[in-house]
Design brief:
The protein is α/β, with parallel strands linked by helices. 37% of the residues lie in helices and 17% in strands.
Length: 127
């Protein structure tokens, strides 16, 4: 895994506790730093406060769904260039996604998709 000198940070956004933990543990075991959120509001707060290199986003979130969250993230200067990988079904409306990992989640495929997306974008500057 290479993405600049710093350990890449991935924001995991999933309302399902088990899937969020599985995703976080899988990424951490591969050397990624992980931040996790269970809903769109928490994810926005983390994205505004901290720097992340990729976002793994469940579409089926309560309150603000994943597509709405993705639109907000793409409209914010700080987060607009961060690749978003959809967890679950990708939809035609989600054309701004960098990748997709279908559910049920496969750890090998997820790690491969994150690595591919991180190689496609320059490292996020650390603040």
């Amino acid at each position: 895994m290479q993405h600049g000198d710093a350990q890449p940070t991935v924001l995991v956004v999933d309302h399902d506790v088990w899937e969020r933990k599985y995703t976080s543990d899988t990424l951490e075991n591969e050397g990624y730093a992980v931040m996790a959120a269970s809903n769109g509001a928490s994810a926005l707060r983390l994205a505004e406060q901290f720097t992340c290199d990729a976002i793994l986003l469940d579409i089926a979130l309560p309150e603000m769904n994943g597509l709405e969250l993705m639109r907000v993230l793409k409209d914010m200067d700080r987060t607009s260039a961060i690749p978003v990988i959809v967890l679950g079904q990708s939809t035609a409306e989600s054309v701004a996604v960098a990748g997709c990992v279908p559910k049920p989640l496969d750890g090998v495929r997820m790690i491969s998709e994150v690595a591919r997306c991180l190689q496609a974008v320059p490292p996020t500057p650390r603040h």
